[in-house]
Task: inverse folding
């Protein structure tokens, strides 16, 4: 809320924080729209202090003051200027403490907060070096038409001083009609905007040098119809860096938005076709376009052309995304699989592709060296593999070469390390775990989301994430026994298992009920509920709380294996704020927690130990939690400070390691009587789920993870803590995992064990093949485009959850909705939108309602823009709903997953006969 503007900002502002610069950059002639210089003693020029600002005065050429609490405010005078997209706000200020400044603006004085709102607010970091810095912000507030007032909130701690605030404009008023640029003679209106030397044109190419890690090249004013041009195609060479970005501004939206793309920084010219059509700000008319050509300071960028296009551009361009062993651990004398992921970065299809493997002399292959691929499009990568019967030696080097007519050949090399198989006594099952004791209680979060091949489908294009267990069925008790064995042999005491309940509807409980509960080794590993109650509003209530508590008591809390803190079963709650919201405040929420304690004691338990996963951002928030009945708090991740300081969706894991001790100390400082459980993060790289909009924490290595674990151990020792939380062990889609996997095998777990366990003769790291078990891979998913529901009990990859109770019976998927948001999460698919244009859903319902189909692509997640909806009559009769998908501009590229919401209200009985694309 505006009264607490330092929390809860929409994602809109994230790129704008990035677009605030303190460095000097090239500026055309500027027009000053309005300016306040605090150079007259005692004259505040209409600005007035409010909130938690003390001793505000103008002296020594600056407006100075002291922030004494969380909400300091400087309110500006009323004025009026036209709002343009090229205006900038320049603030010259200093501070004695590192912190965040927030700037609000408004085009009206009406409303609860005098026209100000969080949607019209921007933030930027200021250093606490007590030196003046010039900060420039690009608000892109043009859609407001005019600006009549500003509000500036200085850092919440320490003294500050402001020499001047001014609004300037350095852009042209008129828009260029161009949407494609080549650079035969001059930059065509493109200019350095930040961290970039002013570009020059030489030999028909635009050339520039990065002067920082976020260099940006900005277009002239343009006016391009967004829906008709969903791609930005860049033909470019750069010699360093890993990531580029495209930034856009819409004619009708406040702020801007960006999307990243991977670079091929080899100094050669490459095509980059960036799908921008899924961005929330790529709508109406695009009026400004920014290109970040690299993220490496000092890199040279050479641009041949830029085009805002209706489809990918450029010739076929092959790229080997991955080449190497398919499995993490390869034993000497056993078969080995070599895998390759092949992509086409160009716009034209690559046809008649040939991939040839060049093995070492000591390798014996099964099958031919040469493989043929008919077509590789820009949307759909191809996966190839070769089977090696045997390899002599400990290390072998392989090479591959891929060719196709009209495209440059590409090559790759790989080294396969072969380790000797450990000597294991014969056993009829997995060898009994040998737990490695730790003086700490080490708990790791566990996400139960991997029970079908359709769930694994988005991960297949990320072969370095392949688990040692393979693409396994998580409901298999034998797989759970391996997970238990590996966890306890590396010092993990308990799992905090993501658990889902929404008004009695449960889902994703297959690992807990079907695997862990039936496993042979469960006695070795404790577990606790992490109730992932990110439920819709108004779904928590007194009666629902009574039911969920009773379910815990009846099924879980009395288990010998259930984890306890202070002698009581621990329950971790994802969203205390959601409970408080639905109940109407802290006092009402406290009644629920008290009810749980009474119910637990009445059942013979000593009570429940509640741990909050969120809503603990300040001392006041922690006091609320304590008043409600919580005794501790922690978090699923600990990278918040690293992300804030990076100001970007991409930053290195080293930043997480560096900032985590500060995160822990800040949490303890605000704990207000609660126990804080420090979190050692396992990273984040969510490309399988979120495509080019993903947050990516890159360069995570076992060594860095080990360093973080040692930091957590040392912090626990210093503060007397005995419980330490570890980030998720198996969030394969979000990129948070340490369960043994292809890239690093057991190395993450080994580092964890070294950090938290005394040295000793540790048990060997066994894989299933070492004892003749496995493989556990699910059968490859049948990539269907039609689902008939002809077999009782077979949902054909569709998963009912949310507010939907469903079954497949007598050739129909029959269901009843129990809330406003019933969901059928669909299977993984690979549908090329260019070749499939229509969808038919045959269904019936007993009440008038509305249905909606969502989809995800390789670059965009399931969302409202990625959807179509239709009316469903409630006459109880079957109707064929024939949908023209081409009516949605977002139906393009490669469709990778589906979701169908068959109704929009509770109490609807419905049946689906089939779903068919054509």
Result:
């Amino acid at each position: 809320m505006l009264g607490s503007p330092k929390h809860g900002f929409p994602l809109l502002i994230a790129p704008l924080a990035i677009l605030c610069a303190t460095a000097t950059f090239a500026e055309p002639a500027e027009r000053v729209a309005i300016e306040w210089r605090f150079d007259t003693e005692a004259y505040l020029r209409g600005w007035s202090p409010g909130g938690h600002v003390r001793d505000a005065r103008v002296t020594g050429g600056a407006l100075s003051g002291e922030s004494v609490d969380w909400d300091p405010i400087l309110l500006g005078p009323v004025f009026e200027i036209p709002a343009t997209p090229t205006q900038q706000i320049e603030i010259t200020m200093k501070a004695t403490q590192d912190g965040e400044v927030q700037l609000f603006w408004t085009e009206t004085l009406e409303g609860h907060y005098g026209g100000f709102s969080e949607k019209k607010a921007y933030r930027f970091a200021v250093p606490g070096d007590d030196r003046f810095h010039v900060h420039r912000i690009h608000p892109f507030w043009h859609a407001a038409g005019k600006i009549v007032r500003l509000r500036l909130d200085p850092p919440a701690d320490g003294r500050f001083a402001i020499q001047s605030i001014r609004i300037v404009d350095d852009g042209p008023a008129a828009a260029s009609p161009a949407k494609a640029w080549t650079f035969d003679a001059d930059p065509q209106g493109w200019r350095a905007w930040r961290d970039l030397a002013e570009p020059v044109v030489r030999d028909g190419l635009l050339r520039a040098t990065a002067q920082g890690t976020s260099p940006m090249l900005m277009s002239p004013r343009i006016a391009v119809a967004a829906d008709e041009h969903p791609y930005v195609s860049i033909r470019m060479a750069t010699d360093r860096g890993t990531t580029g970005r495209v930034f856009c501004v819409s004619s009708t939206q406040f702020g801007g938005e960006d999307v990243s793309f991977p670079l091929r920084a080899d100094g050669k010219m490459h095509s980059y076709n960036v799908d921008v059509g899924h961005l929330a700000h790529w709508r109406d008319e695009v009026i400004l376009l920014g290109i970040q050509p690299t993220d490496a300071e000092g890199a040279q960028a050479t641009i041949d052309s830029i085009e805002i296009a209706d489809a990918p551009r450029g010739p076929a361009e092959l790229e080997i995304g991955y080449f190497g062993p398919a499995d993490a651990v390869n034993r000497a004398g056993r078969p080995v699989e070599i895998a390759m992921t092949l992509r086409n970065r160009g716009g034209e299809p690559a046809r008649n592709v040939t991939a040839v493997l060049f093995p070492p002399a000591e390798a014996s292959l099964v099958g031919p060296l040469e493989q043929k691929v008919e077509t590789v499009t820009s949307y759909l990568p191809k996966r190839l593999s070769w089977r090696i019967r045997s390899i002599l030696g400990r290390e072998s080097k392989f090479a591959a070469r891929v060719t196709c007519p009209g495209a440059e050949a590409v090559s790759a090399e790989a080294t396969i390390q072969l380790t000797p198989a450990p000597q294991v006594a014969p056993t009829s099952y997995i060898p009994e775990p040998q737990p490695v004791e730790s003086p700490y209680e080490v708990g790791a979060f566990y996400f139960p989301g991997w029970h079908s091949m359709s769930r694994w489908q988005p991960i297949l294009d990320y072969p370095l994430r392949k688990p040692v267990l393979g693409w396994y069925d998580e409901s298999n008790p034998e797989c759970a026994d391996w997970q238990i064995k590996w966890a306890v042999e590396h010092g993990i005491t308990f799992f905090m298992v993501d658990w889902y309940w929404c008004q009695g509807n449960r889902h994703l409980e297959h690992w807990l009920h079907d695997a862990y509960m039936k496993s042979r080794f469960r006695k070795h590993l404790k577990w606790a509920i992490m109730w992932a109650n990110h439920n819709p509003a108004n779904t928590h209530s007194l009666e629902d709380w009574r039911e969920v508590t009773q379910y815990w008591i009846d099924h879980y809390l009395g288990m010998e294996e259930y984890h306890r803190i202070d002698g009581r079963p621990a329950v971790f709650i994802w969203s205390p704020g959601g409970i408080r919201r639905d109940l109407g405040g802290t006092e009402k929420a406290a009644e629920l927690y008290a009810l749980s304690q009474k119910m637990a004691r009445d059942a013979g338990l000593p009570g429940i130990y509640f741990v909050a996963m969120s809503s603990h951002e300040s001392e006041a928030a922690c006091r609320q939690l304590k008043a409600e009945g919580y005794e501790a708090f922690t978090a699923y991740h600990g990278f918040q400070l690293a992300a804030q300081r990076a100001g970007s969706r991409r930053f290195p894991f080293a930043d997480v390691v560096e900032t985590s001790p500060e995160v822990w100390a800040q949490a303890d400082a605000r704990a207000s009587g609660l126990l804080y459980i420090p979190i050692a993060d396992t990273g984040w790289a969510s490309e399988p789920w979120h495509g080019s909009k993903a947050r990516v924490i890159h360069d995570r290595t076992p060594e860095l993870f080990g360093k973080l674990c040692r930091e957590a151990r040392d912090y626990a020792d210093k503060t007397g803590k005995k419980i330490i939380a570890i980030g998720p062990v198996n969030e394969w889609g979000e990129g948070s995992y340490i369960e043994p996997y292809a890239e690093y095998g057991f190395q993450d777990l080994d580092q964890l064990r070294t950090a938290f366990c005394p040295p000793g003769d540790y048990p060997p790291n066994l894989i299933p093949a070492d004892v003749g078990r496995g493989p556990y891979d699910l059968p490859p998913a049948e990539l269907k485009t039609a689902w008939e529901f002809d077999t009782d009990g077979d949902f054909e990859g569709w998963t009912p959850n949310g507010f939907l109770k469903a079954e497949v019976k007598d050739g129909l998927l029959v269901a009843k909705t129990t809330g406003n948001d019933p969901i059928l999460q669909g299977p993984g698919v690979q549908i090329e939108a260019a070749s499939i244009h229509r969808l038919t859903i045959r269904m019936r319902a007993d009440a008038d309602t509305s249905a909606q189909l969502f989809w995800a692509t390789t670059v965009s997640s399931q969302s409202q823009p990625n959807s179509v909806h239709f009316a469903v009559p409630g006459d109880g009769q079957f109707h064929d709903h024939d949908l023209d998908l081409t009516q949605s501009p977002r139906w393009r590229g490669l469709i990778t997953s589906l979701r169908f919401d068959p109704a929009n209200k509770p109490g609807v009985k419905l049946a689906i006969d089939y779903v068919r694309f054509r």
In short: The radius of gyration is 29 Å. Residues 1-27 have pLDDT under 50 and may be disordered. The chain has five domains: 11-169, 180-309, 318-417, 441-771, 786-917.
